[in-house]
Amino acid sequence: MGKFRILVKGIVQYKNKFLAVERWYDDRIFEPYQWEFIDGEMVFGETPEGAVARIIKEKTGLSVQVNKPLYTWGFTAGEICTSGIAFLCDAQNDEIVLSEDLHDSLWVLKEDISQVITNQAVVKDVEKAGLTSSFGLDDFGKVDLFVEPMD
Prior knowledge:
Number of strands: 7
Strand content: 35-45%
Structural class: alpha+beta
């Protein structure tokens, strides 16, 4: 039987800006550093809300209020089935202390997100979260979950 894991993503807002973080992926790809939102894996016994608050605190030093889930996603890689939940979170301040696994951070206006974040998977996340000009955060009452079947 395959394994399951749950990821949580924090789309952190402070005033009228959203937090993008730059993470190193791989020297063998064209852009080894890529901008994205903060994410990480839940540990056994955590709630999704508790996990996203913990991960944001560990990676940025920010304390956040977790507001609402924005969307879900899923994928299967090998024998591991992953599901994820993205949350809108409000930061209490904008003072970032990055963890060692992050390279840089940037507070971005909503209209500039698509210019900073170029990874197509993350761009899809931006659209799902309603952070593009064609959608608003309140346009997403439904969540979708797509998990590829395991062989």
